[in-house]
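Re: [ENG-882] Designed sequences occasionally contain unexpected residues at chain ends

Forwarding the minimal case from QA. Structure tokens:
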């Protein structure tokens, strides 16, 4: 299925971050609003550097209160155990019935390192290499149960076919994992992996392991250049570049009404700010920016981060998204029940089943 302009389908996601909120209720409300607009997924950021509820736990609470929208928490790979991370993300996929993603991030500060006391902070390049290894072993652990490993044979008392559980025997630069996982293979096979590929040292990890790459870019040319580089790197790793979705990540401030558009930009933006590229204007010009950048091949879609969570997300869904739907540029219903289906991505084949059961 293709968009009317011949490009791939437009993908839209939104952040539901509310840094001063410690209750799940407002996050449920925001996710439901995003779902009403048909957005592919919502993200919830997390870091060891600031107080706040655990993003993965919050979205696990959001899961039973929603039905279709994808749920993508940030989970760092630094100072955490890869085995536990993959099990937690797999559990979110089960709880949400196939709507989980995982935004992979690293912890670079000495203050974060001291919270754990295991090692000192490391350079970003080394941490992102480690993050790639965690992404790799997570996929192997998700595959360590074949899809039909659970037999639940009451007559014989056998719950699992042990021949369909596999050791991953992974050794990386900073850890080793034997496996198998303690969680059955997730409904999606592999929950969707998301990486912010704005910085150069993140791009090899994104190109090799991510299903979705986020790029903070203030111009169409900049975003297109990064997208082309990521697709080239993905091909170099033996991937089909068309299995990588590249989304432009923008801060959006829709509170100031409509502004005159600058050439190539809607609503007087985006413009560089201390928090990243910022669009400030109205919902109509934002729709025009999204349509233009998608049509000309700048990006596969957008990840929009509201400046004012309540106000801007509502204007985004009721204004920008509604206009894109009216123009036939964005879907009016979900194509399936899983996040992979929303993104047009196939369920990965289990590597161990394909290998004929060799562990």
């Amino acid at each position: 299925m293709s968009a009317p302009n011949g490009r791939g389908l437009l993908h839209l996601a939104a952040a539901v971050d509310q840094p001063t909120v410690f209750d799940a209720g407002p996050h449920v409300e925001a996710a439901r609003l995003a779902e009403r607009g048909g957005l592919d997924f919502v993200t919830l950021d997390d870091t060891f550097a600031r107080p706040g509820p655990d993003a993965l736990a919050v979205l696990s609470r959001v899961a039973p209160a929603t039905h279709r929208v994808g749920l993508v928490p940030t989970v760092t790979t630094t100072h955490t155990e890869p085995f536990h991370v993959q099990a937690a993300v797999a559990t979110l996929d089960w709880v949400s019935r196939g709507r989980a993603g995982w935004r992979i991030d690293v912890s670079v500060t000495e203050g974060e390192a001291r919270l754990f006391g295991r090692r000192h902070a490391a350079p970003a390049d080394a941490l992102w290499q480690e993050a790639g290894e965690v992404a790799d072993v997570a996929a192997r652990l998700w595959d360590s149960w074949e899809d039909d490993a659970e037999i639940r044979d009451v007559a014989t008392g056998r719950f699992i076919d042990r021949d369909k559980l596999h050791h991953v025997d992974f050794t990386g630069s900073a850890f080793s994992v034997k496996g198998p996982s303690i969680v059955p293979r997730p409904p999606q096979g592999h929950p969707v992996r998301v990486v912010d590929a704005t910085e150069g040292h993140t791009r090899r990890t994104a190109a090799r392991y991510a299903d979705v790459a986020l790029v903070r870019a203030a111009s169409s040319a900049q975003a297109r250049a990064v997208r082309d580089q990521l697709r080239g790197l993905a091909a170099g790793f033996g991937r089909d570049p068309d299995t990588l979705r590249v989304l432009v990540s923008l801060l959006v401030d829709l509170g100031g009404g409509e502004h005159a558009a600058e050439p190539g930009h809607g609503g007087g933006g985006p413009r560089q700010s201390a928090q990243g590229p910022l669009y400030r204007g109205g919902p109509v010009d934002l729709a025009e920016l999204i349509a233009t950048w998608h049509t000309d091949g700048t990006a596969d879609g957008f990840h929009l981060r509201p400046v004012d969570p309540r106000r801007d997300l509502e204007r985004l869904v009721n204004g920008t998204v509604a206009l894109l739907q009216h123009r036939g540029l964005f879907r009016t219903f979900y194509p399936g029940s899983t996040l992979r289906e929303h993104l047009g991505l196939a369920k990965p084949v289990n590597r161990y089943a394909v290998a004929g059961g060799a562990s």
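QA comment: On inspection the terminal residues look reasonable. Residues 132 and 263 are 39 Å apart (CA to CA). Proposing we downgrade this to a documentation issue.
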